[in-house]
Amino acid sequence: MKNIRKNVRDLSSTEKQNYIETVKAVKASTSRTTNRSIYDEYVLWHILATEREDPNDPRHFRNAAHAGPAFLPWHRYYLYRFERQLQKKIPGVTIPYWDWTQDADDPFNSPIWDADFMGGNGDPEDNNLVKTGPFATDRWITINLDGSPKGGIQREFGKFIKGLPTQTNVRIAIEETPYDREPWSVDSSPSHRNRLEGFLPEGGAFNPDGTLNVAPDGTFVLELHNQVHAWIGGDMSNVFISPNDPVFWLHHCNVDRLWAIWQEKNPSQGYLPTGEGPEGHNLYDLMYPWDGQTVKLKAKPADVLDSRKLGIYYA
């Protein structure tokens, strides 16, 4: 099946409505294996992977899904599985992508924040809870690390970082090779994966003492993927539970699209490492929690390198 993922700006009102309907239907569906909301089960997968910290990373950033080579294939498989859940509700529905560069000049007024789509910013007078749109506080409940109810989605636009990524940021990432390199971490450079993940801003992401670099105005110095999470704030700025906010899928769909563009433009640049890298990040390593034991699913980076073999196409 050919699944064409479209720019959110190109969605018809019916396509928007269908997408929202399927996301909410997955949230309302109960998993037969865990007796939880299927949507919350996906959030818990992200929590499990983020909690699986690599003890060999001296900066304590790399885990099963972030700050290492598997970052892009892990999230590609994650989106692929989630999209299949959506299609059980309405066949043919696909995850749209949010090209944030189109909103870099005016991020507060992106069409994704419209009341008929993702809803807007959080209410600063009420714990930054989102009160507009189909995922407003009275219509959507998020979860804590232990899976217990946390309350509504929280957002704090622009508090932690200034602005969204630009076309220049994207161009640099698309031109950067190889895919990744030692030490297979936030310190890898040059590295397409690390550039796209957002740990290679001008001036560096880290101070000499290992803390994250902070600009004079108190905002973080990050780019691309990390920058978008930080700009939205709230749930999206918490790496463990960021999928609580449905905008997560639109954001990561764009990240996956950019990786697909890089792969097409750099056909001689394969996935690295093929072996002897961090556990769970080598080409044929099982990606946690999809190891056949933690959950029944099994997935390796090698399984998802060709997005078109998964039926994924970008319009």
Summary tags:
315 residues; mainly alpha; two-stranded parallel sheet
Report on this model:
Strand 2 (122-123) and strand 3 form a beta hairpin. Helix 1 (13-28) crosses helix 3. It contains seven helices and six strands, in the order βαααββββααααβ. It has a single domain (3-314), classed as Orthogonal Bundle (di-copper center containing domain from catechol oxidase). By secondary structure, the protein is mainly α. Strands 1-6 form a two-stranded parallel ribbon. It has a two-stranded antiparallel ribbon with strand order 2-3. The relative contact order is 0.17.
Helices and strands, with pairings:
Elements: E1 3-5, H1 13-28, H2 38-51, H3 71-89, E2 122-123, E3 129-130, E4 142-143, E5 149-151, H4 167-175, H5 192-197, H6 224-232, H7 247-265, E6 312-314
